[in-house]
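Q: For a teaching handout, I want to show students what a protein-ligand complex looks like in token form. Below are the inputs, and the small molecule is adenosine monophosphate. Please produce the holo structure.
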Amino acid sequence: MIQPICGQTTRNESLNILLVGSGGREHALAWAISASPLVSRLICAPGNPGMAEIAECAAIGSMDLDRLVAFAKTNRIDFAIIGPEAPLSAGLADRLEDAGIKSFGPSAAGAQLESSKGFAMDLCAEAGVPAPQYRRCKDAQEAIAFAERLGYPVVVKADGLAQGKGVVIAQTRAEAVATIESMLGGAYGAAGDEVVIEEFLDGEEASLFALSDGEHVLTLTGAQDHKRVFDGDTGPNTGGMGAYSPAPVLDTRTEREAVTRIIEPVIAAMRARGTPYRGVLYAGLMITRGEPKLIEFNCRFGDPECQVLMLRLKSDLLPALLAARDGILDSVDLRWRNESALCVVMAAKGYPGSYSIGSEIRGLDRAKEIEGVEIFHAGTLEKDGQLFANGGRVLNVCATGKDVVSAQERAYRAIACIDWPEGFCRQDIGWRAISRGPAV
Ligand code: AMP
Ligand code: GLY
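A: Here is the structure, written as tokens, with adenosine monophosphate included.
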């Protein structure tokens, strides 16, 4: 097991922290935050069995806004950290702040960068951010005509939150027409009341993360995830089957370009609109010949990208999150390990389609003993000391190593110790970084 190293901090408070969420991202955040000397109590709502080993858990769902606010008040929470996008879009940060509880995560107005793809694209256009050509449409004929103008493949997106399923890359006119009609016809509920038709960009994807306090930007680091379910990046899209950091495609120049041309202008534009963005901004980038373009914003850490970021973070995360809330992010610096971190997602067979829950998982203790390995829970349930699968993405088997090859070898060695016949994972996480050869 490895522990994050806590950096020097100028604060000497003892804080009660509420962390909202229950997935692998939140387990990784809890792992990092629990190592902070600033923490008095760390309570996760609702948390998961992995988080229960390092924090207290309160059985309140992340969308139960009323109970979360009431709980935070009665338990004298000093700082709430909101992991997932749904409560952020529903205004949990606003509600907590109105109740006098400091919160990390954007307001509902800020979270529109993720909750409305059309809003994000309009903001990019306004701020001169490099992004695909696009059009927002409520009318199918107008959407089809614009798709025809762009040519194929073309990207069709439901405007609202659709659990990562609202993006279709249509290869032909027939596919585009069917997708547009189905989205506008209600197949995605209210999320598809409007569609965004986008130019298809060819290149390599990467995720770049930055904190903002509404004015200042603190760039974290980059990562790459594997969204497709099968080896070789084939099969349907998922929430993410694995990730690694650093992302070799985000070299220093490309990352700088993404910060100055994409992240900083968007933070400035949100501020100019009177809705400053405070929290973590996740920029999904398409990089073509070293030039990054924005394909999506998310208003939260990526999952499983957060897991590898936390493993590489040397400094105490908590002062940085507090500074983002307090508007003093310019006083913070974060240090990162030079090592690579890699995460392999173990999912229930059938995911992202239908799958069953309730199968038993054994062997985690042996897996955790491997040097550099850390296992985060994403969808598990504990009963009488035994562990069971309780979701689609179930475990995040992560490892650090001197390079991505070594991190990959350790993660798969740990997976070999896990006895869970009803689960599966990709065997090639990290292939893109590894196929580039050693960094020079
Ligand atoms: P999202 O749910 O917005 O992350 O999109 C899912 C995936 O669709 C992305 O990870 C990309 O692989 C792909 N995608 C989205 N927008 C574009 C685009 N304009 N051009 C090419 N691929 C895209
Ligand atoms: N891993 C992709 C996401 O968090 O949206």
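A: Two things your students might notice: Residues 132, 155, 164, 167, 169, 198, 200-201, 205, 227, 237, 284, 286, 295-296 surround adenosine monophosphate (ligand 1) (CB under 6 Å). The two ends are 29 Å apart (CA to CA).
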